[in-house]
Design goal:
The chain has eleven helices and ten strands. It has about 325 residues and is of the alpha/beta class. Helix 1 (about 30-45) links the parallel strand 3 and strand 4. The two termini are about 30 Å apart.
């Protein structure tokens, strides 16, 4: 698999990674055996970047990854986790004392002495302007609790604020064929600063897999059911903030652009990999077949200019009116 340097971490990672939210919670039940099969399939397919968070299943995702890596002996894997969403979203909680406690818990969960990358997990907007927060993160690096730190953001403005911080190694942002906003400013700014871009929600919560229609239903414990209107967290995390019916229509219009021998999901992932400045894309997977299919997107040829133009045309007509000004 093609590798790229993940920003200021200096680490090389495969361009297609694995997002491990599904292995923790909020996507329906995934038992430990299934989770280990997903991790094994991904790593065997060349995935070297795993993204998790302390809040995914209240640490379950981290613990599953830690046990898998210890048991399998897999080498050369970079694990990124996140912190800050297990407590009320008050900027006053973003202190060195809490950072130490949160990263200590993640180190135990993952079974490591030092975290490869820890990311603030979509923190309150005021955090980005607080020098003390970033001084505390620098202290974590100096104390060798973490090798590097980054920020997972909701908005383009937050991404640009994070990129401007000299210690930020990476920024995680929603980027997919239904969320083109970061292409204009965020990705160029990250390239200029040497900051890595981790593209999350690449399949728009599964919409861009092409497997859904008007009759698709989701389990009660799946955020695609209970967060349709932002009831639990930012609605932009569910279907990228696009209403379900509009998303289905967009997929129908995008489908003719899919290259021969590629799936809709692989097309969507290849589109992200082709964007200048992207370090790694992190699709999730609920079974080994999905993990293998996602990884295979890295070996597809670059998309044609006609396909890229077609994606933008669909976005501008259907999607931009809903999301362009918000995220």
């Amino acid at each position: 698999m093609e590798e790229r340097v993940l920003g200021r971490t200096g680490r090389k990672v495969g361009v297609v990674g694995l997002g491990a939210w599904q292995l923790g919670a909020d996507w329906g039940t995934v038992d430990e055996g299934e989770a280990r099969s997903v991790l094994s399939a991904a790593v065997e397919a060349g995935v070297t970047f795993l993204d998790t968070a302390d809040v995914y299943g209240d640490g379950r995702s981290e613990r599953l990854i830690g046990r898998f890596l210890a048991d399998s002996g897999a080498q050369g894997i970079t694990v990124a986790t996140k912190m800050g969403r297990r407590v009320p979203q008050d900027p006053a909680a973003y202190t060195l004392e809490n950072f130490r406690a949160w990263t200590d818990r993640s180190r135990v969960n993952l079974g490591v002495d030092r975290l490869d990358l820890v990311q603030l997990h979509c923190p309150p907007a005021a955090v980005y302007a607080d020098d003390a927060v970033f001084d505390a993160l620098d202290t974590l690096v100096a104390e060798e609790r973490v090798a590097a730190y980054g920020v997972s953001v909701e908005t383009r403005a937050e991404a640009l604020a994070a990129i401007a911080r000299p210690g930020v190694a990476s920024v995680q942002v929603i980027l997919n064929m239904l969320r083109l906003g970061p292409l204009r400013e965020v990705l160029p700014a990250a390239r200029e600063a040497g900051v890595g871009i981790i593209a999350r929600v690449p399949l728009a919560s599964g919409l861009l897999s092409g497997r859904y229609d008007e009759n698709t239903t989701f389990a009660a414990d799946d955020h695609r059911n209970y967060n349709r209107h932002g009831e639990a967290f930012d609605v932009g995390e569910t279907f990228s903030g696009v209403d379900f019916a509009t998303g289905l229509e967009a997929v129908r219009r995008l489908r003719p652009l899919v290259p021969d021998a590629a799936t809709m999901a692989q097309f969507a992932l290849r589109w992200i990999v082709d964007q200048p400045g992207v370090s790694v894309v992190i699709p999730g997977a609920r079974n080994p077949e999905q993990a293998l299919g996602n990884a295979a997107a890295a070996s597809l040829p670059r998309l044609s200019p006609q396909a890229l133009d077609g994606v933008r045309a669909v976005y501008e007509e259907l999607i931009a009116p809903q999301v362009a000004d918000r995220w």
